[in-house]
Amino acid sequence: MLKYALQIRPKQINRFPWQLSNQNWRRSYSSKIRNIGILAHIDAGKTTTTERMLFYAGKTRALGEVHRGNTVTDYLTQERERGITICSSAVTFPWNGHRINLLDTPGHIDFTMEVEQSLYAVDGVVVVLDGTAGVEAQTVTVWSQADKHKLPRLIFINKMDRPDADFEKCVLDLKDKLETQPVCLQYPVKNEQGLLAINDVITLEQLSWQQKDLGRSYKNIKLEPSDSLRQLQEKRNELIDRLSGLDDELADVVISTESFDEVDNALIERALRRATSQQKVVPVLLGSAYKNVGIQRLMDAVNSYLPAPEERNQIYDCFGTEVAGKVFKIVHDKQRGPLTLVRILRGEIKRGMRLISARGQAEVVSKLYEPLADEYREVSAVQSGDVVICAGLKSTVTGDLLTSSQSALKNAQKRLKQSLGAATTKDEEDDEPDELDELFSIDPQIPDAVYFCSIEPPSVSSQTAMEQALRQLQREDPSLRVSYDTVTGQTVLGGMGELHMDIIKSRILSEYKIDVDLGPLQIAYKETIETPALNTLSVEKEIAGSKQNVSITLEVVKNQTELFSLDKSPENLANLNTLRPRILQVLRKGSISALERGPRVGGQVVDTQIRLHNASIGRGTADSFVMATAAQCVQKLLSTSGTRLLEPIMALQIVAPSERISGIIADLSRRRALINDVLPKGERNKMILVNAPLAELSGYSSALRTISSGTASMTMQPCGFASMNSADESLAERRAQGLE
Ligand SMILES: Nc1nc2c(ncn2[C@@H]2O[C@H](COP(=O)(O)OP(=O)(O)OP(=O)(O)O)[C@@H](O)[C@H]2O)c(=O)[nH]1
């Protein structure tokens, strides 16, 4: 029987706090913000879920659908055409007196870097599972990324409308494959009309969504005494029991009342919030984004259980009231130029403000915008805890820490050092502790490119425009590498995979109207020398009537730290000391440029140092001639001494039922893989930790699906380069020459 029915009227309740009372919102501003990421395996339903959130929050008037290509967050042409997310996008919307800043992130492995950067900007994440597939390969990857950033999580099991959805299997997967502690706050049921409804463990209600208003409203009905109610009560008791083991306030009440039935819902929610924030539990909710079921409750859970900005990032307290902001993404807008997405960790960013990056560059914020995917609403100031888009920052790069002034930065460093109890004497200042390095670091961890291909403009006249487009795309996407091959005269793109390159090509066409051609995709091998070698090259030429004369002696040696050095033996050093610093720079530049392309497959030459023994430069010799001679000398050295190839290696974590492990290992050993460990994972599964050459992994995810009959899940990420045996080297060379 219906005890009460609540009609949600979003327009009435979804106001930003500052629309209610100007004074109050300032006080509670930060506590009412939720910065969240939405993460998942490809196609689990992140974009569909985000669309519903925007719709119910009153931010959009119509429901966007991925298959119709009209979603807000997948705004790039390629995303709409392909129905996938490529760039993470930020949207902001009000919900029940809170402001949710949400980043929708890509699910495909080629865009892992994009996800990694977004996680700097969030305080918690919603991990979406496809209810028919459970934990999948990329779910495991994003889960470990969230682990790395120590982010509290909620799980949303989506697609529960589908007949093949299996809630229990998903929960088992969470325990086994992610080794997490899921707490189910909801269970799926089919209601009287055969539609998906949800039983709520805390309130003991059944929730059913109205389809005639696209799921805007839902009914919550107190369950009548029945088997379902008894089962749900048992689940509620288990939840209280579990949480009281983790939370003192709840434990005290349980002990004093001696009955779980007496425990107040608000108290359970408070305990759940604390346990979630401390990452002791992960609340699990369910629904169907496509069929408009369960989304409002997911948004309520974001407000209730995920932390506010002020509850995290205490390390930035060292900035006091000064600005501290982390750049997590740069996008290029045709009209507005480069736009920098900043998570404000401390202070307030105002329009016209001067900001400096930890690298010391000062820039002025010309305009500020509130994020809504590719739409921009101008604002004049944004406070700590929020996410903002800044226009006018031209040299800032992803990963930069921005603050108000050099002195603010210095003071923050000093305060942090003191609070860490680190050394403050002059001698020890260079030796800063890890936390400092991490906090003020400017280089995001950009993975090495594992594939490359040449890129050609349609005509010589569009070469400059193509280079400009690539420069802009590179600022947006640091995992895209662009280099120039002096031998073939081609521009070369390095990246994370076929889809990555393909998307770059189509973005250059749709956004810059240049129809570029990509060469065949090749594995990005590196090269290294085996033995040191010394060579002298003397070149004399007359160019345009002017005599050019260079004699140079260089050595290549194995070294991982420095690319170029001067030979320290007394007889050479005396001569080298007479060279002008500018000439030394030219020699250095020319020599190092030759390391970009090794003699065997054109791979970058690494772990190699060039040592200058001697150089004599004739009067009037042009710098370009000196540079070219140095490069030629290094090339000769490399081809005479010979190089070895290094191939990209991927680290895989494969989780599968124990009985499937031997079949998977047998297949891996045929792929030149190195099994590092096999660990138990949950009750029924094992996890294989393995390193394997990328060259052997083409189509591996479908092979694994076949071998394990779809029971295995896998994560894969680049983990460095390794040497190869001669037979594999020859095969790689033949492949690079297009002979295989
Ligand atoms: N039956 C059903 N289909 C859904 C549901 N949610 C999403 N879909 C469909 O699943 C497909 C993928 O949904 P998306 O929202 O694009 O998934 P995504 O996780 O954003 O995908 P990527 O961003 O490309 O990783 C689309 O065809 C959706 O219409 C759901 O709850 N039920």
Automatic annotation (TrEMBL):
Keyword tags: GTP-binding, Mitochondrion, Nucleotide-binding, Protein biosynthesis, Transit peptide
Broad class of the protein's primary localization: mitochondrion
Entry's Gene Ontology cellular component terms: mitochondrial matrix
InterPro entries: EF-G-like_DII, EFG2, EFG_II, EFG_III, EFG_III/V, EFG_V, EFG_V-like, G_TR_CS
GO MF annotation terms: GTP binding; GTPase activity
Cell location: Mitochondrion
Family matches, as CDD domains: EFG_III (cd16262), EFG_mtEFG_C (cd03713)
Domain Tr-type G: 31-310
Entry keyword annotation includes Signal: no
Domain of life: Eukaryota
GO biological process, one term: mitochondrial translation
Tagged with keyword Zinc-finger: no
Residues that coordinate or bind GTP: 40-47, 104-108, 158-161
Family statement drawn from the similarity comment of this UniProt entry: Belongs to the TRAFAC class translation factor GTPase superfamily. Classic translation factor GTPase family. EF-G/EF-2 subfamily.
Functional summary from the UniProt entry: Mitochondrial GTPase that mediates the disassembly of ribosomes from messenger RNA at the termination of mitochondrial protein biosynthesis. Not involved in the GTP-dependent ribosomal translocation step during translation elongation.
Record-given protein name: Ribosome-releasing factor 2, mitochondrial
The organism of origin for this protein: Drosophila gunungcola (fruit fly)
